[in-house]
Design goal:
single chain; alpha/beta; three-stranded mixed sheet; about 25% helix
């Protein structure tokens, strides 16, 4: 019986698919051989091993999350320990405190950090760089698109990466708090699966090659 269960059990990772860069994350999960499901409605959360919150527009996603009745069930699932990975707007949604956003924007509070939305300002609002990333060997390519940064982290939150140089040098752009991880940038657009693999292995405890 145990054998049968291990043979047929296949973890499924959800991708919040209300708006934004969903397909890019799905492609990375395909590359890693991980089954996935779009999450648009509360029932799509059933049985997930982890969830990814993509980039896009956090205020729009906030509205759609409420409209679809997903806010409470998703908050509950996160409170219950569902591992989550947010990129860019996804990081904003997961944070406990968000600066420069709308009052009615969602703060899921799964990550004890203060995030500043659109933090890099007009001149450098989109850029690419290579980062050192804790837990990953070698430089990680990082694409920033009207990205937030993390202004401060709560106790127990690990800083995984900072901007190495330029006007925003030192800005915190990747964090982890237990089963929850977030990046200001978009690892899903660079053809590099290492950040997702780190999340799936370390935060979600999945056996990913
Ligand atoms: N600026 C967007 C927001 O506030 C985030 C940008 C992104 O996800 N690329 O939600």
């Amino acid at each position: 019986m145990t054998e049968l269960l291990t043979e047929t059990y296949r973890p499924v990772v959800g991708v919040l698919a209300l708006q934004g860069g969903v397909v890019e994350h799905e492609r990375v999960l395909d590359d890693l051989g991980v089954a996935h499901r779009k999450v648009r409605l509360p029932e799509h959360l059933d049985g997930l091993s982890a969830i990814i919150l993509p980039g896009g527009e956090s205020t729009t996603m906030s509205k759609l999350m409420r409209f679809n009745g997903l806010l409470e069930p998703l908050s509950d699932a996160l409170r219950g320990g569902l591992p989550a990975f947010g990129t860019c707007a996804g990081m904003i949604l997961l944070a406990s405190t968000v600066l420069d956003t709308r009052d009615d924007a969602v703060r899921l509070g799964a990550l004890d950090v203060t995030v500043r939305r659109n933090a890099f300002g007009r001149q450098v609002d989109s850029f690419e760089t290579d980062l050192a990333f804790a837990g990953i060997d070698g430089p990680v390519p990082a694409t920033f698109i009207r990205a937030p940064w993390v202004e401060s982290v709560g106790e127990g939150v690990e800083v995984l990466a900072t901007v190495p140089e330029g006007p925003a040098a030192g800005a915190i752009v990747a964090v982890r708090d237990g089963a929850v991880m977030a990046t200001s940038f978009h690892p899903e657009v660079d053809g590099d699966v290492r950040v997702h693999r780190l999340f799936l292995r370390e935060c979600a405890g999945l056996d990913v090659a």
